[in-house]
Design brief:
single chain; globular; alpha/beta; about 260 residues; 6-stranded mixed sheet; Rossmann fold
Length: about 260
């Protein structure tokens, strides 16, 4: 088995202070996020819930540096966020793999852009593919893989840049229930190895509780935080976790907060 590079990302502490974001064309601007204050600790897995269209993806876009705030401050480890950077990796519901490139080339692409030599980037890509359970698939093309496998490649392609923060926008939303649970468990296993901060947007309450160290719930637009819930469930987690009385209590609290938020 190939060993992953020992180079580790810096801490990954995200801080938002008074963040407000407007969206829409100039003649019809609307406030998506209103004075959001939020801290995400280094290595924390934060899940974000809220009504459809409330601004969850806008929040990720602002942290990624793709969406400019109207007011407020965004910082990563004390440095201002003002543009996109590989240290803040994005994973979407639909993969963005290059269909004409083999899997190993897709994963290694970020290192190629950094000028890493071919042998080193291939070695690192193969190690990450093994970490996400795709050892032996290096020479396949994306179209030869299932949807869940494609998402594993997408996650590996983002992680090869060793981001301080992994931003995930409903990455498992298009998968069937069985594959989705497998991907959730895989993500937790990968993060146990890499210790990357994660901000994970989802509509699925069970998914948020199963994955998260913490959940924040946004109101409808203009979105503000209406609840902030710590998840006391032990790790590692499995299907039995969903039967824990604490899991059920947290789900009840989330449902109540979402009703109020909507």
């Amino acid at each position: 088995m190939n060993a992953l590079s020992t180079a580790q990302p810096r801490a990954g502490h995200v801080s938002l202070r008074g963040l407000s974001v407007d969206v829409g064309p100039a003649h019809a601007r609307a406030t998506a996020l209103h004075r959001i204050d939020l801290d995400v600790a280094a290595g924390e897995l934060l899940c974000v819930l809220g009504p459809s269209g409330c601004g969850k993806s806008t929040l990720l876009g602002a942290i990624a540096g793709h969406v400019s705030p109207k007011d407020g401050q965004l910082e990563l480890d004390g440095a201002r966020i003002d543009r996109p950077h590989p240290e803040r990796g994005l994973v979407f519901q639909q993969h963005t793999l290059f269909p004409w490139k083999r899997i190993v080339e897709n994963v290694a692409f970020g290192l190629k852009m950094q000028g890493v030599d071919a042998a080193a980037r291939k070695r690192e890509a193969i190690a990450l593919l093994e970490l996400v359970g795709l050892g032996g698939y290096e020479s396949h093309y994306p179209a030869q893989l299932s949807g869940g496998m494609q998402q594993r490649v997408e996650i590996a392609r983002v992680l090869i840049n060793r981001p301080r923060v992994l931003l995930m926008d409903e990455p498992f939303g298009a998968l069937d229930a069985q594959t989705r649970r497998h991907m959730q468990t895989l993500l937790l296993d990968v993060l146990a190895t890499l210790q990357t901060t994660v901000i994970f947007v989802t509509h699925d309450i069970d998914e948020a509780i199963f994955l998260g160290d913490r959940i924040v719930i946004l109101s409808r637009q203009p979105a503000r935080i209406v609840d902030d819930i710590q998840i006391p469930l032990a790790r590692p987690r499995n299907d039995d976790t969903t039967l824990d009385p604490a899991f059920i209590d947290i789900k009840r609290r989330c449902l109540e907060a979402l009703r109020e938020a909507a």
